[in-house]
Design brief:
Elements: E1 14-16, E2 19-21, H1 23-47, H2 54-57, H3 67-73, E3 85-90, E4 94-100, H4 120-136, E5 145-157, E6 166-177, E7 182-191, E8 194-207
Antiparallel strand pairs: 1-2, 3-4, 4-6, 5-8, 6-7, 7-8
């Protein structure tokens, strides 16, 4: 006899779902079932409030400096040009660049064949290239200067970057010693709004001639 039915006369016990249970239990089950249906319906209603297709919900990054302009500023070329677009640019102050990470990037076959992850050193290199855009100041007709790593400090890799990610990199000038041609910059890289890499960059400016 079902739970609670021992308190009832035999004729009060009913069949429910192939088992003998009291009307009290059957009512509780029916109430729970109805509540679950109501909750599911509410969730479905909430998800259907925004009927805009997902591909139209999110605005694209702006293009402040396109790839052709980047190629005019930076000396890097395939396969080592790691900035596809600049979406915010304050020459001599800061820049935000993006790198679209795809499975066709030439480093993925070896890093790693079974689990493609963007190498950390290339994340740092991509950030440094954004830093180069900050310092090379194309608004005055481009620069004939080159920049070189003089040091990297406090670099941390927070999360892996994989094929399909959009790497968003912000580089900000924090100190410039013009006499010695040394620039210090803070850098952070994001995927989906989360920091994946950060560090302090020291760059040396030098003439390419």
């Amino acid at each position: 006899m079902g739970w609670g039915s021992e308190c009832l006369p035999e004729e009060a016990v009913v069949e429910f779902g192939g088992d003998k249970r009291s009307p009290l239990v059957s009512n509780q089950l029916k109430t729970t079932h109805t509540s679950l249906i109501a909750n599911c319906a509410s969730t479905a209603s909430d998800s259907s409030k925004d009927e805009t297709p997902i591909e139209l919900r999110f605005p694209a990054f702006p293009t402040v400096v396109d790839i052709n302009q980047i190629r005019e500023i930076l000396p890097h070329r395939f396969p080592f040009l790691l900035v596809d677009r600049v979406i915010e640019y304050n020459p001599g102050v800061s820049a935000v660049g993006i790198k679209n990470v795809t499975i066709n990037d030439n480093f993925f076959p070896g890093h790693f064949p079974d689990r493609p992850i963007m190498p950390g050193v290339l994340m740092v290199e991509a950030m440094a290239q954004v830093g180069g855009l900050v310092m090379l100041q194309p608004e005055v007709g481009g620069s004939r200067d080159s920049f070189f790593f003089a040091g990297i400090d406090k670099v941390r890799f927070r999360k892996p970057v994989v094929a399909g990610d959009t790497l968003v990199m912000r580089m900000t000038l924090t100190k410039l010693q013009k006499r010695f041609g040394i620039a210090k910059m803070d850098g952070k890289a994001y995927v989906g709004g989360e920091v994946v890499c950060e560090g302090e960059f020291l760059m040396a400016m030098g003439s390419s001639e």
